[in-house]
């Protein structure tokens, strides 16, 4: 089966008000997506508490990711990556409002078939423009 070559930096709406999430691959137990942020952050008091692990790589821009119990957000810049273990409460404190912040997110582990095949990630559903 032949697959078309695509580019992760193409088809990005630079004027989008909402965060843009594009599913790249979905299969049993794994979902890979591109997330484009333009200044969004988690709402005050909101914490993600996912049943699956998430590995994220920042391809461009910058962001602040706060883990529950830590005194300050971890600043991520282009090329930085980290693993968010299942059940580790976290929130997006900020994303760069002047430059596109592009994430590559790999969700894996306890994903059911329906979670793996979602077209929009629950990890970005609650982000709001800061």
Structure write-up:
This protein is mainly β. 3% of the residues lie in helices and 43% in strands. The chain contains one helix and ten strands; from the N terminus they run βββββββββαβ. The strands form three sheets. Strands 1-2-9-4-7 form a five-stranded antiparallel beta sheet. Strands 6-5-8 form a three-stranded antiparallel beta sheet, with no helix packed on it. A hairpin with a 6-residue loop joins strand 5 and strand 6 (74-77). The termini are far apart.
> Could you tell me how far the N terminus lies from the C terminus, measured between alpha carbons in angstroms?
43 Å
Radius of gyration: 14 Å
Largest sheet descriptor: 5 strands, antiparallel
Mean pLDDT: 86
Note the topology.
Elements (H helix, E strand, L loop, with lengths): L19 E8 L2 E8 L2 E2 L11 E8 L1 E6 L6 E4 L3 E4 L5 E6 L5 E8 L4 H4 L11 E2 L1
Antiparallel strand pairs: 1-2, 2-9, 3-10, 4-7, 4-9, 5-6, 5-8
List keywords for this structure.
130 residues, mainly beta, 3-stranded antiparallel sheet, 43% strand, globular
Outline of the structure:
The chain is mainly β. The chain is built from one helix and ten strands; from the N terminus they run βββββββββαβ.
């Amino acid at each position: 089966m032949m697959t078309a070559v695509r580019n992760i930096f193409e088809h990005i709406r630079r004027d989008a008000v909402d965060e843009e999430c594009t599913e790249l691959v979905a299969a049993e137990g794994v979902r890979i997506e591109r997330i484009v942020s333009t200044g969004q952050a988690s709402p005050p008091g909101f914490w993600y508490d996912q049943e699956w692990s998430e590995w994220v790589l920042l391809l461009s821009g910058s962001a602040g990711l706060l883990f529950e119990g830590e005194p300050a957000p971890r600043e991520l810049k282009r090329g930085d990556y980290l693993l968010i273990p299942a059940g580790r409460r976290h929130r997006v404190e900020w994303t760069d409002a002047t430059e596109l912040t592009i994430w590559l997110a790999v969700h894996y582990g306890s994903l059911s078939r329906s979670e793996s095949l979602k077209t929009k990630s629950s990890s970005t559903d609650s982000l709001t423009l800061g």
